[in-house]
Each structure stands twice: as C-alpha cells, then as structure tokens.
Amino acid sequence: MANRLFPNRIYCFKYILWSLLCFLTGYILRDIAASNTYSLIVGTQKTVGIQYERRVDVQSAFGTTNGNIINIQTVKSPQKSSDNRISTNLSLGVTNPVCRSAPNNGPIRRTTHLVKATSKTSSCRVVGEGLRSGSVGELTTITIKVDSKRRNGFHKQFFFSVLAISDKHIFSVSPYQVDMKKLTVTYKFKPSKPGKYDLYVEEITANAQKQLPGSPFKLVIDGAPIDEDAVRKTADELPSCQTLPQRNISWLEGEWVTKDHAGTNRGALRSGWVLQPQRCSFDIFTTEDLQRAAASPTPKTIVVLGKSTERAIILSMIDIALREGEKTNLKASLMWICWGYMEVRLGNLRFIYQDFRIEGASEGSIKNNQFVNITCHNEKIASKNNDFFGDAIGFFQETLFTEQVWPDVVLLVMKNINQLKYLVEAIPKSWNGVIYPLNGFKSHVGSLYTPNGRRADVEEATKFISLDHRIRLLDGFALASPMRHTTDKSPMIMNTMHWHRYCNEEALDIRVCSDATEMVAQVLLAQALAPNGKDAWLASLEKCTVIDTRRPREIQVCLDCADSLIPWHIKRKPNIKCYNTSTGFHPRDTNEMQVWDGSLCPDKCMESDPVEQFATQSGRVDVRICTIAKSNTSLY
Length: 636
Prior knowledge:
Elements: H1 2-32, E1 36-47, E2 50-60, E3 79-80, E4 86-87, E5 125-127, E6 133-135, E7 140-145, E8 159-165, E9 169-173, E10 175-179, E11 184-189, E12 195-204, E13 209-211, E14 217-222, H2 228-237, E15 254-258, E16 273-277, H3 287-295, E17 300-306, H4 308-321, E18 341-346, E19 349-355, E20 371-377, E21 380-381, H5 388-400, E22 409-412, H6 417-425, E23 434-439, H7 451-463, E24 474-475, H8 476-480, E25 501-505, E26 510-513, H9 515-529, H10 534-540, E27 555-560, E28 577-581, H11 603-606, E29 612-616, E30 619-629
Parallel strand pairs: 6-14, 17-19, 17-22, 22-23, 23-24
Antiparallel strand pairs: 1-2, 3-4, 5-7, 7-11, 8-9, 8-12, 9-15, 10-11, 12-13, 12-14, 15-16, 18-19, 18-27, 20-21, 20-30, 25-26, 27-28, 29-30
C-alpha cells in the first residue's frame, strides 16, 4: 500500500513546489511593476463584430521585455465610456500606467533639388574655398560677384540663395555682407556636421531660378564621424522646446535633419525630417497622440489667422489628426481654399482658421474719432463697415475671445507692432493662452535674402515681446528657409507664396506635403497640448485609451467661406454652417459659399490712382486707400 502511495506523495510535493515558484514569480513581477510601463499586444478579441487589440501595460525595471512572454490572467473586454468612445480597462494590479508614444517610422521623403527649369546658368559668378571644402566648427567663406551689366536689378529684381544638402542634413546660409559698389555678396558659415553636400548657389527671382556656374558644388566637410546613437541620445536629453520661454528669437536656431539624427523618443515629421534646434528638441505629435488628445476630457483649441500661406498650417494639423479614410475630398472641399472661417472638431480637439489679411490694412483710424481710412479692392470697400482693421478687432472681441471659442494658442501674421498692439488690447486680461506672431514665413519675399531686409524683419519681430507676457516669438524664416526647395513649385523658391501642395503619399499617410507648415503645426500642438513637455502630458492622462482605428468616429466641420477673395473682409461674427462626417469632407459646393457683397468704393476714391496692384486667386486687385469723414454716414 505504501509503495502504491509513494508516487502520489512525490507528485504532491512537486505540485506544491511548482505552486510556490509561481507565487514567487508573480510577487517579483508585481515589484518590478513600479518602474517603466510599455504596451504589449497579447491577442485580439471580437466584440459586437469589431476586433480590438488586447493590450496590457507591462512594467519593467529595464524598460524592455527582452523577448519574454508574460501570461496575463486578468484582461477586461473593451467598454464604451460615457462619451461613446472605446476604452479598455486593464488590470495587472498596476496603478497609474504610463502612456507611450510611438514615433513616426515611415520612409524618409526625398526632394528633387534640380530640374530643367532651374538648370540655366546665371551670368553672375561665385568664388571661395567654402564652395568645395570646409571643416566642422571652422569659419569658411564664399563670395558672389554680380554681373556689372545687371547692377540696376541687383537686390531689386533678383536675389541669391545658398543651400547645402546632404542625405541626412540641410542647412541654409544667409548673406554676411553686401558691397553695392563692388557688386559682391559675401557669405560666411561654420559647418556643424561632416559629410558630402550638394551646395546650391542660385540666382532667384519671382519668375526664374538659375544656377551660378559650377552649382551645385560638391562640398566636403571634414570632421570626426558622427556617432548617430550619441546624437539621438543628446537630442532626447534636451528640454522640450515648448518649455523654453521662447521670448528670444534665437531659441529656434538649428538645422534640419532626418530621423537618423533626431531624438529617438522625440520623433520626426511624417516625411522623416525635423528641425533640430541647438537648445531644445521638438516633441512631435503623431496621429495616435492626437487620438488620445481628442479623447481627453480637456478641450483644446488652436487658432491660425492669416492668408493661404498660414491656412496650410491648419491643413497640416488636420492631416496629422485624421486617419486615411477621413481625409477623402480634402483638396476638393471648401477647406482647401477658404476665404473666410473654417473649423474642424475632433472630440475635444478644435482647429480654427480665419482669413485675416491685415498686413495690408490701415490701422490709422483706430484712435481717430473724425476720419476713417478705407481700403478699396477694385470697386468694393474691403470691409462692410469701412474699417477693415476695426473688423479684425471686432472678430477678437465678438468671436475669438468669447466663451464659445476661448483658444489655447493663437498664431497670426501682421504688418507691424502697432497692429499687434491694437489686437492685444482687445484680448481679455483673464486669458492665459499663448500668442505667436509669425514673422518671415515667406519664401517669395526677396528682401529676406538680403542682410538689411532680414535684419529689419527680425528687429520688428523682437519688439513684439514688449507688448504682452503671453507673446512668444516664432521666426518663420529661420524655421522654414532651409526647406525652400520644397514649396508647391518645388524646387522653385520665389515663384510661389505657398509652402504646401496636395499629395497622395499613402506610404506616409500624407495629403498635405509641406515640412515647413507641418513643423509650425507641431510647435502649436506642443504648446496647446503639452506646455510642460510631452512626457508630462502622457503621464497626466488618466488612462492609455486603446482606440480602434477601424471604428468610425464623428468629425464636425464648420464653414463660412466667401465665394471670392475680393474684397478682403473679416466678419466679426461668422455665419457658420456645420456638418458631421466620418468618411471625409463634402466636395466643394458653390451653394455653400456665402456672397460678401460689400459696399461700393466712394466715387472720389475710385478717381484716385491705385496705390498697389497684385494678383490673387480671384484675379488682379487694384488697391486704393482714401480718408473719409466718419460723419459721412452715406458710406456706411
């Protein structure tokens, strides 16, 4: 009998020992759970015909699974939250799981920098040792010699661009000195990275682009080989750019690099490129991040005020936020060209654009009780009440800074500090958001390629800080200029005012191709969503919601778009019409476009000569500015 029972005793002993080992293993795993958290897909399940990934937050003191498979005993099915979004409650006995953000990991987009239209040779010449060789950290020089026969057009009709391009790095060079007597332009630069570059030295105009003889030059920069792991680590260790004061225009100084030289955790734009400043690193927000932001209980509103150049910033932001199937008809919709007000809401995320062409408006009548300066575009007044800039202020007071909007971040362009001053005075003192007056975001303005013009732009922008503590500086030329070959007329530089173009790059899920506008969009997203840094934002989320990307979600689109750009106008209170969609935008419908009749320009004003003429998407505009007595009510 004893012999028959003996094997069972051994079996029981093994069973007890095995149970004890399992208990100890679970206890150790629970202790390890105090450290890093990451998301592990352990399987899928179907609920109501929809398949969800079952993810568990597993924590490791080493931040990695090391290939171990963990058996999860308690995983609850996805449940609908009160706002009808899908959320997942996961139980490992772990409290306050930390969200992780996976960076964009698509292929690096390449640009064609030389085409037949830009291959013609300029009659100007360029010399200097910096054309073909240089060393990291050492100053080098090149000098352009202008054709004496073209003296009259120098820095009036034509300008020069110097751009160095390698596979993983792009930097532009600004002119150091101009000698109008000797007709020379000197450039000095100090390379920061070794490698082989194509150095483009080009003559640029509004209608043409030519290579100086020898361009593109084969430039070799000597220096110690780049340790890409160390470079990425350094970029990750720099502070988040939005946590800097940003009240000195130099905070943005840096160079464009591919994701190979960007922080692993910070990420790069969807194209694989990113601006890497010297003092900080940008937190790049992905589509998945914006899904979390939309599901967050805290509403966030970003507003862009400008013209078509700045409208592309909102379009880039929408392109990042939406999934592939939600972008249908983007170019064919009113969103692509809206000369008025447009808004997209995705959960608690809200993106607003208002056509705001105040750069050409007169603000002289703001403090004048007797006279008003009116601006006429062709035969119509560029405002319904004869006070275009007054309507801009009215939009601030009656729409933007009301409880219906109350934005977190506002970006706008203006002519000078006086315009910004009047607008800031219209903002309630209780508002604690951030204002970015964007300067120099223009590839087509020739003066920005001259020392004096560039200096004047920076000096005017630097004055903005004195107006209000909520103002931050954003140097658009420093940010975008190195990508000047990527305009919508790529590689033409001054032939367009647009940084963006429509594209259909399915591999990268991009419809709005523009590193420049997408980079500005990331600046605004970081400031609105994560002013203390993206890591702090992720840690603040109550839970890492797993959102099924195949489940339709509701997008609200609101519009008040005029049927013509002429005359320019700003409605103090837009008359918006909204629709909901989950499968893309409604195609452009002229019946949805609202007519802005405007008042006719006074006869005396029409008798005067235009002060300016320019081309627009709605045709040529003759601009007249006249001073009219406010007592003349017949004009209103």
